[in-house]
């Protein structure tokens, strides 16, 4: 066992349940459930993998206690029918299915809990119907549309006291089903803006009876009664832990840290553990992932009490610390982009009892085992992009940008089976697609050789790391990880060597994988060849050249002082590349305008919904206009001439026009290398320009299939 992680790897207790170590996999919705609303083979395989990976205590994703009102990830159809992509335990018929899930997790010696929740007035997907006749939203008090504390809510009506008592029974019945299905514990989720939180919160709760918010006893009565009733029904061997907002921000009636601590003291008299969360009203996603509120720049007023010194990592640890300082004796934890090193540090300092993690375990479910074996360099790093959360919030199946196999554990194309015939695999291109293909093929026992025309690996990822801003995404770690894996898997890497047909012939590979990235295309526009125009290719060349001298972090800082881009620019293209370039330049004091020759719906394509909802107001603040639904007419002396929908023609002024759209498949290279090796595959942006998630997925599939 690694001494470096003595505390992290130490078993712990959550009430009567012994955990294997101090890493808790906190709940995350997956949309992996079956159409018949049950956890089926896909979901079970996903949880089994997490258990096998060595996590100390596994909390299965949020599960509605009531249906359909209790779930927020649900589609309503025009004929009045509905179908959830979120679990619910409102019926005994589900017990045998969940039993299969708990058996699969227990097989690996991992204790398992399930998060119970009730959506209440929360509408994080923005897809729930507003008509009370379709969705009878209830909360402790009625709130009108105007009184709602943010954009993600629906106005509730007030519950009667009888309805509150009924709800307690609904919660306890769901917990009882979980118990019967073999779970060791349940997490009562009264955090974020779920039904439970509306009782704890003075924003939502204006009752004057014993469930009101007049004092802490009354505010916590609903959750305490639920916990007590669950314990009564499920007995002393079953743990009940809770999740709620210890501190809230951005509203005059938001729960203060002092209030949160007082409520926690009362809740701790009945519960077995507390998962501490913070909430920030008026912002999508609240503070579920504190790091993301720092994008594109930290807001003028950061939520006080929290720790913002590490880019959001460990941000909510002051909450667990406050509970411990207040003398709360039951275990406390939180989840906020902690890694094993940070987690160990906090445990040693006594600031929490368990380390909550979600994203790092999605990126690498084997993280705990790798920590135990001292193989930190083998942990696939989560880059913090929140593509996973975005998929979930769009009710799509969970997907991880860096871990292509997540949720695809049973799909034949993603099986890492040893190669039956050892082949020689030649990979052309050392970007994410090529590196992942090489890594996987070598892992399976093939002899792999990779050629990269630049001196460094990673393709455009290091450039993206500079443009994206090092603080918000850890892209450099991804390249470092892949590079390490290539070395460990004995992949022969040739750097600074452009592949020719002669080289392919000399290598005599059995399989040729072309993953050389996209090619720059000609811009068919009058004036596009003038000095006024700066092609994406040139910008990338400049950045790549600078990356030979400086690290991405140094370059990110240096470009804040100087770079060869004039004071005003017009960017052609409003998808991910255009938006991120605009952000990069605006942060460096350039006056920027974006022109996009497509519809509004394409703006920001490739970015997450949450990031875009931060970015649009930020662009407004920085005076970055976005023009769309237009035609480019010419690059002229004063800037970019465009024609808008109503046929008006005018010039967007800028000292340079920069294109982010001059990309296409690398057909020249594909043609040059075609016919040399019968088994040739083209993957990633070389085939069709896409995002990192596509590159990694295609690389993995190629590696698994050779
Ligand atoms: C895709 C995704 C889905 C999530 N779904 C839930 C959920 O159903 N219930 C919940 O309490 N938290 C949910 N979370 C929040 C995580 O449990 C965790 O608190 C958060 O991601 C911060 O931890 P991390 O930085 O280790 O990811 C979700 C997170 C992600 C990334
Ligand atoms: S890399 Fe991105 S998609 Fe994968 S877990 Fe991390 S944040 Fe989620």
Can you put this structure into words, describing what you see?
- With 706 residues, the protein is an alpha/beta fold.
- It folds into 3 domains: 3-393, TIM Barrel; 417-518 and 665-705, NAD(P)-binding Rossmann-like Domain (Rossmann fold), CATH 3.40.50; 533-663, FAD/NAD(P)-binding domain (3-Layer(bba) Sandwich), CATH 3.50.50.
- It is built from 22 helices and 30 strands.
- The strands form 8 sheets. Strands 3-4-8-11-12-13-14-15 form an 8-stranded parallel beta barrel, surrounded by 7 helices. It has a 5-stranded parallel beta sheet with strand order 18-17-16-19-30, with helices on one face.
- Helix 1 packs parallel to helix 2 (95-106), helix 13 (432-443) packs parallel to helix 15 (475-488) and helix 13 packs parallel to helix 22.
- The longest helix has 20 residues, at 161-180.
- The two termini are 36 Å apart.
- The model has no long low-confidence stretch (mean pLDDT 96).
- Iron/sulfur cluster is lined by residues 359, 362-363, 382-388, 400-402.
- Flavin mononucleotide (FMN) binds next to strand 4, helix 10 and helix 12.
